[in-house]
Amino acid sequence: MNLILQGLTAERTTINSIAALAGATRIVPINATAFRCEGVTLTGDIKTAVDQACLAAQLDYAFVEAGLQLSDFRLLAMDMDSTLITIECIDEIADMQGLKPQVSAITEAAMRGEIEFNESLTRRVALLAGLDASALQRVFDERLQLSPGAENMLAAVKAAGLKTLLVSGGFTFFTDRIKQQLGLDYAHSNVLDIVDGKLTGRVIGGIVNADEKKLTVARICAELGTTPAAAIVMGDGANDLQMMGIGGMSVAFRAKPVVRAQADVALNFVGLDGVLNLFG
Length: 280
Prior knowledge:
alpha/beta, Alpha-Beta Plaits, Rossmann fold, 2 domains, 7-stranded mixed beta sheet, 4-stranded antiparallel beta sheet, 11 strands, HAD-like_sf
């Protein structure tokens, strides 16, 4: 196995110390703030020791198979809110209605897995009833930003031949625009009901929940003639766990503890392009 260590900064003495904990036989710099520690053996005790040391040093780590290539995968599947982008769109829409605290509290509880997603989405969208639909464009224009490293990651992923899927419990107003802006291959999310230029407080059709996200990843993989084992799946909340669970590599990005604990890789400090350092 290789142990990848990376951070916004990375002191070589700290890297050497953590590599020693893992019994690395060689340390290879990937760039100024990322290092590949080769020849490590993954055990529970080693993982615990590395986890504690990296948290203290504000470093991200990942144990990966030696020789793993980005081109070994066929699909990159990403959650949108707080993963590919920095905001929760529904919270920012609610802010236009003066309801951000109420909606944000439901969002946080759902992401921690404390409220079932369908219930949480229904409750949050209901609070938006009567809001002028122009608020959606304002959120897109004024508040929506890509997460750090997103464009670098996508450029490398496309160059390696992977297809890209944006699958979200958010709304098509945003996923469709991001898909077009970034040249993504697929997008799937919820449709807000709008009548006479105002939100009705409902969504149209089935809700894109954890089950639907998993089914979407599986469906796109089948269309590509492969299995979910050929997918890298990225997310941050409990609603992402099912689709992350069927992927060949699951990546928790600045995620809730329940998600970090179950993911293959957790990126807490570096940007989305930190995933590129995991591959040869």
